[in-house]
Design brief:
By secondary structure, the chain is an alpha+beta fold. The chain contains 6 helices and 8 strands. It has a single domain (5-200), classed as CheC-like (Chemotaxis protein chec), CATH 3.40.1550.10. The protein has helices at residues 10-35, 54-57, 86-97, 108-133, 149-160, 193-200; strands at residues 40-42, 46-50, 64-74, 78-85, 137-139, 143-148, 166-176, 179-189.
């Protein structure tokens, strides 16, 4: 595709930002109900970027992260990958589970909680994207992996088969109990899927 976020039309940029903001608002509401207290989410940036830049955004290919991956079928197939630096994963779990999280105490409950967060974020984002584009998206059951960012990305790309060369990137910030948590949400499209989405936002690329 060869286009950066700067090459998109103002309408596309505004629509992508609004997708992120609506998705974050819906996700924050769902997470707040889950834990019984207010969780705020914001979206500092939404942009289209080359796959090659993803590892650096999360701290480099050797950075240890928690990754929730969800396969997407429908009008614009691809995958969604939600990445959290490991330290942010523990802070988010501490908020959600209302206790300190240690590396040794990490178990099935922690894993399932992170997968549920990924599921909520994915659903909120896809619902907002569907509203703006009138496209259909169908998410799979989430899977979780804790590993180096490069390894998780490699596994995600392998599962997709033929992919494009750009991702839709949505940075997410969580705030609760004076905790500040940053996560990274990527839509990894199969070939032509990103073009389909952006065309549905008003301008053919």
């Amino acid at each position: 595709m060869g286009n950066t976020f700067e090459s998109l039309s103002n309408f596309q940029k505004d629509a992508l930002k609004e997708v992120g903001n609506i998705g974050a608002g819906n996700a924050a509401t769902a997470l707040s109900k889950l834990v019984g207290e207010r969780i705020e989410m914001s979206v500092p940036q939404v942009r289209v970027l080359p796959f090659s830049q993803i590892p650096e955004i999360v701290g480099g290919p050797e950075a240890v992260v928690s990754g929730v991956y969800i396969r997407i079928t429908g009008s614009a197939p691809g995958g969604i990958l939600f990445l959290l630096p490991f330290s942010d994963s523990k802070r988010l779990l501490a908020v959600l589970l209302k206790r300190e999280i240690s590396d040794k105490g990490w178990g099935e409950l922690e894993n399932s909680t992170l997968m549920e967060v990924g599921n909520i974020l994915c659903g909120a984002f896809l619902n907002a994207l569907a509203m703006f584009t009138s496209l259909s998206f169908y998410p799979s059951v989430p899977s979780l992996c804790i590993d180096m960012a490069g390894a998780i990305l490699g596994t995600a790309f392998h599962s997709l088969g033929e992919v494009g060369d750009e991702a839709l990137f949505i940075e997410t910030e969580f705030s609760c109990q004076a905790q500040h948590i940053v996560g990274y949400f990527f839509f990894l499209p199969e070939a032509e899927s990103l073009t389909t989405i952006l065309s549905s936002l008003g301008v053919n690329r």
